[in-house]
TrEMBL record:
<dbReference type="InterPro" id="IPR000182">
    <property type="entry name" value="GNAT_dom"/>
</dbReference>
<dbReference type="InterPro" id="IPR016181">
    <property type="entry name" value="Acyl_CoA_acyltransferase"/>
</dbReference>
<feature type="domain" description="N-acetyltransferase">
    <location>
        <begin position="2"/>
        <end position="161"/>
    </location>
</feature>
<keyword id="KW-0808">Transferase</keyword>
<keyword id="KW-0012">Acyltransferase</keyword>
<dbReference type="GO" id="GO:0016747">
    <property type="term" value="F:acyltransferase activity, transferring groups other than amino-acyl groups"/>
</dbReference>
<protein>
    <submittedName>
        <fullName>GNAT family N-acetyltransferase</fullName>
    </submittedName>
</protein>
<dbReference type="InterPro" id="IPR050832">
    <property type="entry name" value="Bact_Acetyltransf"/>
</dbReference>
<dbReference type="Pfam" id="PF00583">
    <property type="entry name" value="Acetyltransf_1"/>
</dbReference>
Length: 161
């Protein structure tokens, strides 16, 4: 049986290791995040989210099998809705297809709802068709599209066109 609870300090290193797996996996979809170079930054973020009660973990037989990170959004601009963001959700490959991702997402959504959030957003890499299909099944639809342009670099020119 899978149990979802708030993360604790004892979960920091297992979550960091799982996040590094997530970052590595996302590279095949075009993510530019470096892996080991972000270990310290993600450890700080995980610690902050645990203190803020914005990180849930899924466990089976005491072992971490997934996590979800989220927060209410404090923007510079006033908006007509209160917004929450799911920043990361990850289920270890051995546990996928068992409803753990849906349960983690639901737990985060419920926490955000209890915090007064009206709208939940998240980002997904355009090339990650499986993740996009998952979020579609969970009721998410495109809200804002990010586009990117990569410059070609050569050592002889400073022009980018």
């Amino acid at each position: 049986m899978t149990i979802i609870t708030a993360a604790t300090a004892a979960d920091i290193e297992p979550i960091v290791d799982a996040w590094l797996l997530l970052a590595r996996d996302q590279q095949r979809y075009g993510s530019t995040l470096k892996i080991e170079e972000n270990r310290t930054a993600i450890r700080k973020e995980v610690t902050h989210l645990i203190v803020a009660d914005n990180l849930f973990v899924a466990r089976r037989e005491g072992e971490l099998c997934g996590f979800v990170m989220f927060h209410t959004q404090d923007g510079v601009y006033s908006e007509s809705v209160s917004r929450g963001t799911v920043t990361n959700i990850f289920v270890l490959p051995a546990y996928r297809g068992e409803g753990i991702g849906s349960a983690l997402l639901s737990k985060a959504e419920n926490a955000l709802y209890e915090d007064g959030v009206d709208l939940v957003t998240l980002e997904v890499l355009a090339e990650n068709v499986d993740a996009r299909r998952f979020y579609d099944r969970e009721g998410y639809s495109p809200h804002r599209i990010e586009v990117a342009k990569e410059f070609e670099r050569d050592n002889n020119s400073r022009e980018h066109r």
